[in-house]
Amino acid sequence: MVGARVRLEVFHRLPDGGFVMISNHVSHFDPPFLSGWFGRKIDWIAMSELFATGWSDRAFRWLDVIPVDRGGDDRRALREALRRLEGGSVIGVFPEGGIRDGERSMLAGAPVRDGAVMLAVRSGRPIVPVAILGSERLYNAKNWLPWRCANVFIGVGVPIPPPGGGLSRGAAREKMRGDLALAMIRLKDDLVARFQLGSNDLPHSPQQRMSEP
């Protein structure tokens, strides 16, 4: 992508067939970065408000994005995502529910929404955790200059399978949430170690990035 230098680290081979891909969310640039460098086509789940205009509705449906009503129990979106998982698709979810940085980020252990875990447990397919760092630097117009590329780091972690052992769905979701929380923190730490990153490379708010010199 123009304005960025992407460094990708795949810590584990991607599973065969369908699975749920989850990522932290630091900027509006995350979907194109992840879709471009992940290695598999991603069918994103996105809020239905993005489909509000005719052109956006056509564009997002052409990209196979699944609209979801964030204010209620959207069973239609759940059924569609499960159908695509069964057919071998990768379903992409930002389980933080919006752009998050600092202590509000799942990379710092903040709680996340249950949708991705529910999809994995219901479908029996694994979750692949992904961490992205640095994409919010593109909110600063100076980083679009050809001699000032922003560094973006993407880490693909170890797949997390739904737990076995005869657990109820509720117990399985609870265990998987805990496993996922630890996996995201570990993945962030692995990226920091791999590329020798500092605190300024961790997620910052768009406002902070825009004010940088």
Observed structural traits:
213 residues; alpha/beta; seven-stranded mixed beta sheet
**In whole angstroms, how far apart are the ends?**
22 Å
Number of domains: 1
* Number of H- or I-type helical stretches: 6
Contiguous low-pLDDT stretches (5 residues minimum) are none
Number of strands: 7
SS class: alpha/beta
| Outline type | globular
**Strand fraction:** 15-25%
Largest sheet strand order: 1-7-6-2-5-3-4
Largest sheet: 7 strands, mixed
**Radius of gyration, whole Å:** 17 Å
Mean pLDDT, to the nearest integer, reads 90
State the helicity in percent bands: 25-40%
Describe this structure in words.
The chain has 213 residues and is α/β, with parallel strands linked by helices. The chain has one domain (4-210). The protein has helices at 30-37, 54-62, 75-86, 115-123, 169-195, 206-210; strands at residues 4-10, 19-23, 42-47, 66-68, 90-93, 127-133, 150-156. The chain has a 7-stranded mixed beta sheet with strand order 1-7-6-2-5-3-4, sandwiched between helices. Helix 4 (115-123) packs across helix 5 (169-195). The longest helix has 27 residues, at 169-195.
What is the element layout, followed by pairings?
Blueprint: E1 4-10, E2 19-23, H1 30-37, E3 42-47, H2 54-62, E4 66-68, H3 75-86, E5 90-93, H4 115-123, E6 127-133, E7 150-156, H5 169-195, H6 206-210
Parallel strand pairs: 1-7, 2-5, 2-6, 3-4, 3-5
Antiparallel strand pairs: 6-7
Helix pairs in contact: 4-5
